[in-house]
Amino acid sequence: MPVNASKDTVFLQHPQGSQVTILLYGATVISWKVANDEGDLQERLFVSSKSRLDGSKPVRGGIPIVFPCFGPPIHPEHSRLSQHGFARSEAWKVDKIIMDNDAGVSIRLVLDPTVNDKIASLFPNPFLLTYVVTLAAHQLSTDLHVTNTSPSKPLEFQALLHNYILAPADELHVTPLQGLSYYDKTEGTDEARATPKTETRAEVDVKKFTDSVYENAPQRYKISWLNGDLEIKAKEFKDVVLWNPQEEGHKLADMESEGWKKYVCLEPGYVKGFVKLEPLKTWIGQQVMSVPQK
Ligand SMILES: O=P(O)(O)OC[C@H]1O[C@H](O)[C@H](O)[C@@H](O)[C@@H]1O
C-alpha cells in the first residue's frame, strides 16, 4: 500500500522505495527515508529519542510547522499564542490522497479551526490551513496553503518549516548565505539581537551556538558534509533560519544527549514582518528537499 493512514500517522511509499511518515499531531513529518548510492534506505531527518510523539508536546525533530507566529508572539493579534504558534501542536486530519503513481505519492492534510474550539479561543481570525506532502524518488515537497476565510478582514501571519536535517553538525556547512543581512538571536541584548549583521562567510557552519534569521534569502540552499549533501528550494518563504544550539541544547528537556551533534535546522519561512493576506485569498509557501544524485 503506497499510502497507509492510521489513527495517528500517515505513511507514504514511493514505487522506487523512498518513504515518509507524518504524525497527524502537528502534521509533523517525522521520517523521510531515501535510498543512498548503494540502494539502502537512509533516514534524512533527525528526531530526538527523548521527543514525545504522543501529542503532548511539539516534536523535537522532523519538520514541525510554525504558524501563525515565529518565536514568541509580537503581533497584537497573536498575543494569546505560545512560541511558534499552534499548527505544530494541534491534531490535523487527512483530507485526501492527491496523487499515487510513479511521478509521486501525495497527500493533503487539513487544520480547520471551525472544528477546533481551542484554536478559535486563542486566535479568532478565520482561516484554513492545508498541507500537501508529496514524495518522489529523491525528493520531498511540503507545501503550506493558508486561506483567509474572512470575507472582510486581512489575515496577518508568519509561517516556517522547521526542518531538522540529519547531518554531522561539526562537519556541515550551508551555502549560499554570503552577503545576506541577518539577525543574530544568540546576542546578549535586545538591541544587539535587533541590529542586522551581514554574513561574510562563503560557507556557514554551526560549530558554535547558532540562531540566525537571514532576511530576503535566495530560497535555494545546499547543506554539505563529508559523506552527503541535501538541497532545499523554497517559494514565498523569503527568509531562512539557521539554528543549532550546541551545548545550549542541554537546556531542552526533550533533546537527547548530545543530540545537537546530529542535525542542523535550516528553516525556510516568512518570519521578518508578516504576510498580509487579503480576504478570501490563499497564500502558498512551498519547499522541496532533494538528495542530489551522483
Ligand atoms: O524549542 P522550540 O520552541 O521548538 O524552538 C526551537 C528553535 O526554533 C527556531 O530555530 C528559533 O530560531 C530558535 O530560537 C528556537 O530555539
TrEMBL record:
GO molecular function: carbohydrate binding; glucose-6-phosphate 1-epimerase activity
Residues annotated as binding substrate: 60, 83, 88
Keywords: Isomerase
Catalytic residue list: 162, 267
GO cellular component: cytoplasm
Any one Pfam family match given in the protein's UniProt record, by short name: Aldose_epim
GO annotation, biological process: carbohydrate metabolic process
Domain of life of the native organism: Eukaryota
Catalytic activity of the protein: alpha-D-glucose 6-phosphate = beta-D-glucose 6-phosphate
EC number(s) reported in the record: 5.1.3.15
Record has Membrane as a keyword: no
Role this protein plays: Catalyzes the interconversion between the alpha and beta anomers from at least three hexose 6-phosphate sugars (Glc6P, Gal6P, and Man6P).
Family: Belongs to the glucose-6-phosphate 1-epimerase family.
This protein's name: Glucose-6-phosphate 1-epimerase
Upper taxonomic lineage: Eukaryota, Fungi, Dikarya, Basidiomycota, Agaricomycotina
